[in-house]
Every structure is written in C-alpha cells, then in structure tokens.
Amino acid sequence: MPLLSRWALRAGLLWFALALAAGVALAWPGVPAPAYPTYLHLLTVGWLTNLITGVAHWMFPRASAERPRGTTGVGWAGLALLNAGLVARGVGESVPVDGRAAWLAVAAALQLAGGWCWVAHLWPRIKGR
C-alpha cells in the first residue's frame, strides 16, 4: 500500500475515533460536547473523505508504468490541507462568537483547497479503455 494511502487511512481512523468520542459527548448529559456541525465534519470530512481519498489513491488505475500513482505532491498537499481545515474547524467552534466566523472561513477554505488538490491528483488517472 502506498505511503500516501497509509497516511490518509490512518488520519481517517483517527478522525473516526474522535468522532465517536464526540458522539458520546453529545449524547451524555453534563459532558461538554462539540457543536453538532463539528461532529458531522469529523465523520464526513475527517473519516469518510480521508478514507475515500486514501483508497482512491491506492486503487485507481495506474497513471503510467514509470509513475503508477502519478506525482504525489498534490495528493500530499490535499491530505495536509484537508486535515488542517478540520483542525481549524475544531478550533473555530471553541473560540468566542466574535472570532468564530474568521476561523470557520479559514477552515472552509483549507478544506476546499484540499479537496481540489485531491481532484487534481486523481483526475489524470481516470481514463477510458
């Protein structure tokens, strides 16, 4: 399994464990819990998106015989940006309301950039017969 896939899958599993803990906190009375949208972000962006992109990098058709997975720099950038956006989202939900919008905007921009990096990385590997 390629290194980038291993890192994406491990990141996804880490976010999944954090999402499970957040879900327990949301359900348990008296326990400080994250905001519900943050919980959903941990599950969908953190777990599912990392899982999907890691498997896609590993299993999509080969780009070429010399570089079967293409140039991985954009994939690494996508992984870093996506996960930095998740961290920014978590921080943004915990800051006072007057600074929250800026944090959430940065988080959204990082996640968007990470998603586009993954698209740019995987797009050339989608070929016809």
What's the end-to-end separation, in Å? Answer: 25 Å
Q: Give the fraction of residues assigned to helices.
A: over 70%
The strand count comes to: 0
Low-confidence stretches: none
Radius of gyration: 16 Å
Shape: elongated
Overview features:
129 residues; mainly alpha; 4 helices; 75% helix
Describe the overall structure.
It is a single chain. The protein is mainly alpha-helical. It is 75% helix and 0% strand. Helix 1 runs parallel beside helix 3. The longest helix has 26 residues. It is elongated. It starts with a helix and ends in a 7-residue tail after the last helix. The mean pLDDT is 89.
Please outline what is shown here:
The protein is mainly alpha-helical. It has four helices and no strands.
SSE layout and pairings?
Blueprint: H1 3-27, H2 36-59, H3 73-94, H4 97-122
Helix pairs in contact: 1-2, 1-3, 2-3, 3-4
